[in-house]
Amino acid sequence: MNPITLIIIYFTIFMGPVITMASSNLLLMWVGLELSLLAIIPLLINKKYPRSTEAATKYFVTQATASMIILLAVALNYKQLGMWTFQQQTNNMIINLMLISLSMKLGLAPFHYWLPEVTQGIPIHIGLILLTWQKIAPLSILFQMYHLLNPIITTILAISSVLIGAWGGLNQTQTRKIMAYSSIAHMGWMMAILPYNPNLTFLNLIIYIILTIPMFIALMINSATTINSISLLWNKTPMILAMTSLILLSLGGLPPLTGFLPKWAVISELLKNNAPILATLMAMMALLNLFFYTRLIYSTSLTMFPTNNNSKMMYHHPNMKNNFILPTLTTISTLTLPLSPQLLP
């Protein structure tokens, strides 16, 4: 693809969520969502493969449907109140329409079916954009209207997302699908705490992005698309294998690591708001997540798969030269738990 075209596309992808976050006008928020949607489509179909075309079609159809529902909710709200913002007087049906459409954009269960398939059919670096940057705009809209959301519907979305994200990742061998189901589960944790404390949703999102970026970088460096390809890292780049194992444990929320911080904060906040049953269910389902992360670590680190690669310990991996991002983000994603008194409100 032409470099100038790529620059324009990436700039548009960057500006879409920025416009959505910076505006209080619902129509401008919708414009920001559409910018990021239309700009990422050329990247999805950049490789002329049937799988990438299928993924781009699924993504476009789902996101366009959600955008139409958002536009309908915005128009109904303007007809009712004559304003381009949601107010306390806004009809509950309009708020629920907005919540459902944003859930479709985020890939929350039960609207999650498109996310693993799309992530599997696109390149790894585009999957990183899809699972991190593209989540910011819908979450920022939910962040602005959290006080109007129906807590029952929000709780149902949260529980089903954590359950589907954990259960769906158990039988996967493709790393991109595993990361997609991990994203669904993490979005469930963010939705669970949104009606009670939106600042914790923001903290959860930041930590999720910090954990996901180094994981995808490790997969990109080694072109690791399956568990079997990761299992060959022991005689190629053992340092990356150790980093990957730490990041996976942090994603699962193991206590000494950074990933434990958002789960601890969410559970304690739910208990403060008299929701012990929800907190218990979330904690139990988090164990399923930790199980498939641990299974991935076991198959990659503690077993030795047959390999035709006779070169041992490629410490000077060509893609690792001058790559300071991966060690830095790995350190942040594993060692920032002592900062929790400063991070938690």
TrEMBL record:
Entry keyword Translocase: yes
- BP GO terms, sorted: mitochondrial electron transport, NADH to ubiquinone
Location comes to: Mitochondrion inner membrane
User: Among the entry's GO cellular component annotations, what is one?
Assistant: mitochondrial inner membrane
Domain annotation NADH dehydrogenase subunit 2 C-terminal: ranges: 290-343
Give a yes or no for keyword Repressor in this entry: no
InterPro entries assigned: Complex_I_Subunit_2, NADH_DH_su2_C, NADH_UbQ_OxRdtase_chain2, ND/Mrp_TM
Instruction: Specify the protein's topology with respect to the membrane.
Output: Multi-pass membrane protein
Q: Which reaction does it catalyse?
A: a ubiquinone + NADH + 5 H(+)(in) = a ubiquinol + NAD(+) + 4 H(+)(out)
Q: Which residues cross the membrane?
A: 5-22, 28-45, 57-78, 93-114, 126-146, 152-171, 178-196, 202-221, 233-255, 275-294
- NADH:quinone oxidoreductase/Mrp antiporter transmembrane domain residues are 23-285
**The protein's Enzyme Commission number:** 7.1.1.2
Give the main EC class: translocase
* GO molecular-function terms, A-Z: NADH dehydrogenase (ubiquinone) activity
UniProtKB keywords: Electron transport, Membrane, Mitochondrion, Mitochondrion inner membrane, NAD, Respiratory chain, Translocase, Transmembrane, Transmembrane helix, Transport, Ubiquinone
| Subunit architecture | Core subunit of respiratory chain NADH dehydrogenase (Complex I) which is composed of 45 different subunits. Interacts with TMEM242.
The entry assigns this protein to a family as follows:
Belongs to the complex I subunit 2 family.
Function (record text): Core subunit of the mitochondrial membrane respiratory chain NADH dehydrogenase (Complex I) which catalyzes electron transfer from NADH through the respiratory chain, using ubiquinone as an electron acceptor. Essential for the catalytic activity and assembly of complex I.
Q: What is this protein called?
A: NADH-ubiquinone oxidoreductase chain 2
Origin organism lineage: Eukaryota, Metazoa, Chordata, Craniata, Vertebrata
